[in-house]
Amino acid sequence: MSDNNHISSSSTSLSELNSVFLDNMSHELRTPVTVILGYASILYEELEDPELKEMAEIILKSSNRLTEALNLILDQADIETHRLKINYEPENVAQLVKDAVKIFEHEILSKELKLNLDVQSAEIIADTDKRMFSRIVNNLVQNAVKFTKQGQITIKLGVEGEDENATMVLEVIDTGIGIPDEYQSLIFEAFRQISEGMNRKYQGVGLGLSVTKKFVELLGGTIEVQSKEGEGSHFTVRLPLKH
Q1: For residue 18, with 0-12 CB atoms within 10 Å meaning exposed, 13-18 middle and 19 or more buried, which class applies?
Q2: How many CA atoms lie within 13 A of 131 on its CB side?
Q3: Do domains 3-80 and 89-240 have the same CATH topology?
Q4: 139: exposed, middle or buried (C-beta count within 10 Å: 0-12, 13-18, 19+)?
Q5: Would you tell me which CATH number, out of the four given (2.60.40.10, 3.30.710.10, 3.50.50.60, 3.30.565.10), belongs to the domain 89-240?
Q6: Residue 209: C-alpha distances to residues 54, 72, 189, 203, 204 (Å)
Q7: Nearest-CA neighbor of 213 among 116, 140, 114?
Q8: HSE-CB of 18 using CA atoms within 13 angstroms
Q9: Whose CA is closest to 144, among 48, 234, 11, 216?
Q10: 67, 29 in Cβ contact below 8 A?
Q11: What is the mean pLDDT of each run of 10 residues along the chain (243 residues)?
């Protein structure tokens, strides 16, 4: 075996071991986090004392943050080990987008941001993988909410073209911090963020956009970003309407 083949084999093995480790750790943590989330939700609904209710809310938010991190780590592990199976089914993607956005309505309102939801039709049927598509929308909207302190977030969904050439177009636009030109390719790399290390300004494991890009590509689409530092970002996803 040549040295290059040995290095390649070792790299593959290391990648597989990393994926198995991430997978095992994520599954091991998921059960207790789910229990904490469930009881915290009950406490938040039942408690009347403002101070105790605030504590329950902190537990809820922290548990949700950890759950999201675990989901992203599991997605990344599935991508690295090529275990993802795409289940194409006719789905009303207009409703899937509305459902995903609804999850973030409270946070958007609490940050006093304006939410604009522009869906071309109440029913847009596409052949897609429901889980993957929902994760794409979820990750992009969450990203917009995280990096926008004032202004607005706009989510658009429409269709371009006709018949076999029809394309579904999803746009997520924010007035957040924006992305410097030199970082616009970096943001799609796994575990990478503009602000990194112990001094990073924003929470997250740095997998959201990486997983999103991979899901988009697996579904036969493309994702692009237009952004200007200090003015906001505009993510555009194009996916085939039919397969």
Answers
A1: middle
A2: 9
A3: no
A4: buried
A5: 3.30.565.10
A6: 31, 10, 8, 14, 11
A7: 140
A8: 11
A9: 234
A10: no
A11: 48 61 68 81 87 86 73 68 80 95 87 94 93 91 92 96 88 93 74 44 59 90 92 95 82
Q: How do the domains of the chain map onto residue ranges?
A: 3-80, 89-240
| Phi and psi, residue 19, nearest 5° | -65, -45
Please report, to the nearest 10 degrees, the dihedral formed by the alpha carbons of residues 99, 104, 105, 110 taken in order.
170
* Helical packing angle, 50-80 and 3-46, nearest 10°: 160
State the pTM of this model.
0.71
The Cα 238–Cα 232 span in angstroms is 20
CATH 1.10.287 fits 3-80, yes or no: yes
DSSP H or E stretch at residue 126: strand 125-128
8 Å CB contact between 78 and 70: no
3-state secondary structure of 194: coil
